[in-house]
Amino acid sequence: MELFDSALLARQHGDETRSKELLTEALGMETSAADSVAGEYLLEPTRSVLHRSAAAIALQIGDAKTARRYLESALAGSPPLEILKELRGLDDQITRLERKSRIPGRSGRRRSPDMTPTKMIIDRFKQKPPVNIVGLAEALGIHVQETDLGSEFAGEIFRDTDSSSGYSIWVNASDATVRKRFTVAHDIGHYLLHRDRFTDRLKDDHMYRSSLSNQLEQAANRLAADLLMPANLIRELRAQGINSPEEMAASFGVSLQAMQLRLGIGKGRKR
Ligand SMILES: [Zn+2]
What spacing in Å lies between the alpha carbon of 146 and ligand 1's midpoint? Predict the structure, then answer.
């Protein structure tokens, strides 16, 4: 980041040309560093830190498009809460820059009226399987933690002033990975659809039954299935010749039963 500091110094001294040169050089270095770890989703916080730097420098140069690209890539990982807060700050600044540079009379592609912020965040995570479901929860401001919930419960969502959405999710640490992923998705479903329907916390057992009605539970299950197995990605897998429920389940990181339900085959109730 020395180049970045020198660039800001040059700017302070009124040498805008030199500042821009240094920033462009810094951007080249930071973007290639970020690109080199783009697929390393487990390499946190390094991955999100490098992407954040690239986005921040692009923002300084006034390159909203590059800034947006690296911000989105950072959010597609699992940034720690501290970095996530910084990314949100960057998001606001990039949005302001996008508004300023928008051609009058043409509406921006990303901010069309039917695209709510939540849908925009969700769409970012539907790029390739398996969907990073914990990353999605964190991008929505929901903190996810694995913990011991005994043998009866799969997970719970509760009000938590420490998380930016005001909600956190606990997942049973003893469950299998596919089950944990489904639980997180199910609780994101409760957050999006039902957070005005419970007071402090909502606990789900392993059949995804809670104090809410079966109808509401089924709605959370359907949304969970949409999040984990998006229709666009099912189509993409089919286009690649991946058709069997077993292969698809493996690609999406879900149980075979969940995959079969999503594809409308079999009648298994278990996830
Ligand atoms: Zn539930």
Answer: 17
